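Amino Acid Chain and Its Fold in Token Form
===========================================
What this section holds: a protein sequence and its matching fold, both as plain text.
Structure line: whole-number tokens from a learned vocabulary of local backbone shapes, matched to residues.
Purpose: to set a sequence beside its fold so the mapping can be learned.
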Amino acid sequence: MTQVVTNSLFWMVLAGLAGFYILDSVAALLGLRSVQRHAGAADGMPESVASIYDSGEWRRLEQYTSANTKAELLESAFGFALILLFWLSGGFGILNRLIGKWGLGAVPGGVLFIALLWAGRWLLFLPFGIHHTFCIEQKFGFNKTTPRTYAVDQAKSLLIAIVLGGPVLAVVLALLDYRGPRAWLYAWIFTSLLLFVFAWLAPAILMPLFNKFMPLERGDLKDAIIRYARSNAFPIQDIFVMDGSRRSTRANAFFTGFGRTRKIVLFDTLIKNHTSDELVAVLAHEIGHYKRRHIIQKLASGVCNIGLFLFLASILIRSPALAEAFGIRSVPVYGGLAVFLLAYGPIGRLISLAAGFQSRRHEYSADRFAVETTGKRQPMIDALKKLSKNNLANLVPHALQVVLHYSHPPLARRIAAIQAIPSLK
């Protein structure tokens, strides 16, 4: 068995992984406690959200949150234990030696090394996804996915990972292996260009593999949306309806793509439950993300994060200290990259905290854009309340949950921010 050396890098990575595991677990328990404390009682709850759920719905939310929290704690404990077991038993070194014996070369061997790790994790965590979809979501009336649809979705995701992920990983490994001290820069340019290409292609090629997108039929709703878009100098070719009800009762809307692939998409479940004014407000919110350049900012942040990852990787992937900390004797570029992915985890989580803060600020900004350009605040508030109720959203999340995981502000804070906008209906 390959010996794992408990050097400084070992303890730093272990402390980071353990720290976020504990934080996530504490946040989940605090979130459940918050729901239990408010279930059936409006005491201490913001007036703007106190009446959204009646006592029966609060009880249902409590049960739903409890079921999700237990599953989340079990999955995170399993994941943390799995990492420790594989790591401390010398799994990385064993896999490295096995692939080395096959003589595949740095790039093919590297793709196989990382693919095996990814595939093993996917298989081990698949039961958790199945349980969430067909037990928890099914029990509370959200799931509409059939076993066949679920299996087809998984197969398509695997195929995309192989067809797109494999070649991209091979190019990155080749650049890191052959291009010397500037390897990370070439890899950064390559992956950054791909990020924009995928953002452009996804609405046209990838998303239709999973859902059907039909143009919104002519009528009052479409006319109202087009009038709004034109009044705000937003060129729009069409509005699409996605068959979200095929998989879930949950509702949403989103804006995606660039140029000719740009799409404004409404879930069919959203259209079913909202008035025209509310839907225009929701679409105005999505257009607000575009107008306020939030999409470009998010892509730019992604590019910077990739650059940081590759720069640090270029320093550490051949580091003997990193290899020893994970039980790898030789340091092939793919072995170094694989273990660096794990070592980078705590850094990635820290970056995600900043990204979450940025995302929540963007939501406030898009809400403000929507109510200012429509001239009405109430349709936006009513739409947010309906979305929260229909999705059984937690109206009283703990602050630690929000900081760690929320990309959107809690509903009460969003409503308060909207109500603070002056001179609107």
About this structure: The chain has a mean pLDDT of 87. The chain has 17 helices and four strands. The beta strands are 213-215, 239-242, 253-256, 263-267. The first strand starts at residue 213 and ends at 215.
